[in-house]
Specification:
Largest sheet: 3 strands, parallel
CATH superfamily of the largest domain: Glucose-6-phosphate isomerase like protein, domain 1
Strand content: 5-15%
Strand order of the largest sheet: 2-1-3
Distance between the termini: 56 Å
Helix content: 40-55%
Number of domains: 2
CATH architecture of the largest domain: 3-Layer(aba) Sandwich
Shape: elongated
């Protein structure tokens, strides 16, 4: 399959020198893209990119399903705490795989198969406070995601959640 992209109306020769992309810039970016592609292929061949083998690792699917079943017995909600890429993939999957207003579907009537899922993906204190007000934190799984371990927004939200959990269940 080939994808064709017509970018002719973005070129400086079409829209004017300062406003468009120059051929020189395109050539430069093409070289960077080629090097990035070669690096990706090399890393894939050397098994440095574990995510690329995930579709072939069926045992992981069974592990995830087993974990989900255990969580569903004990909890009502699943909250993903992350910013940017630490939340966007999860949001995309949730949106693609579940109907709108998924959380409002009845689990008891069999209309919702899993936990309610929430993505408070910013540091707006009223958003997180509002969410914590409607959740039973004792019956909620909090999945804290930060690739660096030092993302300020995620850590700020974590500290708020940590305090709520300590207040609910103790240290």
């Amino acid at each position: 399959m080939r994808i064709r992209l017509d970018y002719s109306n973005t070129l400086s020769e079409s829209v004017g020198g300062l406003n468009g992309i120059s051929q020189e810039n395109l050539d430069y970016m093409a070289e960077i893209g080629k090097k990035a592609h070669e690096s990706l292929c090399r890393k894939r061949e050397n098994n440095e990119l574990g995510f690329m083998t995930l579709p072939k690792r069926i045992e992981l699917l069974y592990d995830v399903r087993g974990c989900a079943k255990r969580l569903q017995k004990e909890f009502d909600a699943f909250v993903v705490i992350g910013i940017g890429g630490s939340a966007l993939g999860n949001i995309a999957l949730h949106t693609a795989l579940n109907p709108p207003y998924y959380n409002e579907l009845s689990r008891l009537a069999g209309r919702r198969s899993g936990l309610k899922v929430y993505f408070p993906d910013n540091i707006d204190p009223s958003l997180l406070k509002g969410l914590l007000n409607v959740l039973d934190v004792k019956k909620t799984v909090f999945n804290i995601i930060t690739k660096s371990g030092s993302t300020a927004e995620t850590l700020a939200n974590f500290l708020v959640i940590r305090e709520a959990l300590i207040n609910a269940v103790g240290e």
